[in-house]
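Researcher: I'd like a candidate sequence for this fold, 115 residues long. If you have to choose between options at a position, lean toward the conservative one.
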């Protein structure tokens, strides 16, 4: 009888990416929530296409200007990348914690300029 493997290469040790993220992140960075939102978007499509729109109920196939939403999307993407870098630093002991702390403060300073 062949052994059945799950949908991920890391099965059977871990059942899902969320389980790994929760295990690796002692601090609640919200990475598991972001993963759920973005992975659902990549699998489902329509939900995330409206996340950053100022008027999500306005349905239009034509491109439209959305400066606030574009800035929020860039910051969310940078934040997600920084989360991944922080996890890598922790896991691989790269010694970059101070640099990442500086970047974290800089990233958070942009919130007041957008909202």
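Model: Candidate sequence:
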């Amino acid at each position: 009888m062949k052994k059945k493997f799950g949908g991920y290469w890391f099965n059977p040790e871990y059942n899902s990416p969320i389980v790994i993220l929760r295990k690796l992140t002692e601090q609640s960075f919200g990475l598991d929530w972001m993963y759920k939102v973005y992975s659902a978007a990549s699998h489902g499509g329509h939900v995330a296409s409206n996340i950053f729109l100022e008027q999500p109920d306005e349905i239009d196939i034509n491109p439209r200007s959305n400066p606030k939403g574009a800035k929020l999307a860039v910051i969310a993407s940078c934040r997600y990348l920084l989360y991944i870098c922080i996890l890598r630093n922790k896991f691989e002991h790269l010694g970059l914690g101070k640099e990442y702390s500086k970047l974290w403060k800089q990233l958070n300073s942009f919130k007041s300029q957008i909202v």
